[in-house]
């Protein structure tokens, strides 16, 4: 009976929980934005009024500010009450919430497809551009000597100017020749550097591609194994094997997600000789039921106080939760089993708590019920009183689940 969720059941459960959390987060965010915007507008209005007010108006504005503060606190209490009412409504609708849902799970919808991320080293796929050739410097040009001025010593000046021009040309030429002589080596070095950079790029690209292909192959293999397991599950379910039936039931129950704050766990085992499923359901303890009925703002103490529900209301609500979860669990399994592999279900439902006598964890059973498929399918769960339905099915039911009073019957009777 200790069977827990399998791989596919856990996938379904986590997907449903993630969807539920996202929806709750979206609602909370929208409410927070709405409140923040309203508060901001109110603050702006108050600021403008205060700036424009005369001394005579200030007392009136102070009174209005106090009234606005009280109204804000009342609104805060109303928000808490709204959240509380919503939570109580979810608690009370545990059974109704599943009736409009087809609990059948198409196992083909669980077939996986490998999803590969894009190659993360696209820059390595582009060859490094070949460097532009180093240009040859232009030949130096012999410059004409500057014109000589004056008549005195003209010939000597012309000769000196000519010699200076020749010397400059010679220096320019030898500098040009030195640079030109170095060009072949520089060009070869640039090409060699480019070739080395290309070699490193290609090496890095090959390593990155190899790593990427290995990771893709691992994902493909994981998906192949997952789909192979799914094929085995589908085939096993077709033959009604014990493991396949139990796995399918765990998927169905994992697909049934309760409010996140309400813990419900299932374990099941299948007896093929009797075509009976034995289930154990563990629900959250009585503390899951809010003890408040609504919230109110107490102006005298500037506090938001919870108005307690009566003990009877709280006890009745927890008992109803216990009854609803028991019927919901039966309904979901029978409805999801379209092949009618499961002919009957025996179910025990309880909670786990700490014994006040020993301080050790204990399990307290609240409901023990068994039903055949034919008997259960004659019920119209949209119109029943769950406690009466359990009585009709011959269930053993705790007289006070809220007080952790266990059932007195031993075991679960066989289905009629």
Question: How would you describe what is shown here?
Answer:
This protein is α+β, with helices and mostly antiparallel strands and 416 residues long. The chain is 54% helix and 13% strand. It has eight helices and seven strands, in the order αααααββββαββααβ. A five-stranded mixed β-sheet has the order 1-2-5-6-7. A two-stranded antiparallel ribbon has the order 3-4. Helix 1 runs parallel beside helix 5 and helix 4 packs across helix 5. The longest helix has 86 residues. The protein is elongated and about 140 Å long. The model has no long low-confidence stretch (mean pLDDT 88).
Summed up, what is this model?
This protein has 8 helices and 7 strands, in the order αααααββββαββααβ.
Quote the average pLDDT.
Answer: 88
- Label the structural class: alpha+beta
Radius of gyration: 42 Å
Shape: elongated
- Poorly predicted runs are none
Distance between the termini: 22 Å
Q: N-to-C SSE series?
A: HHHHHEEEEHEEHHE
Order of strands, main sheet, comes to 1-2-5-6-7
The number of strands is 7
What is the helix fraction of residues, given as a range? 40-55%
Portion in beta strands? 5-15%
Number of helices: 8
What summary fits the major beta sheet? 5 strands, mixed
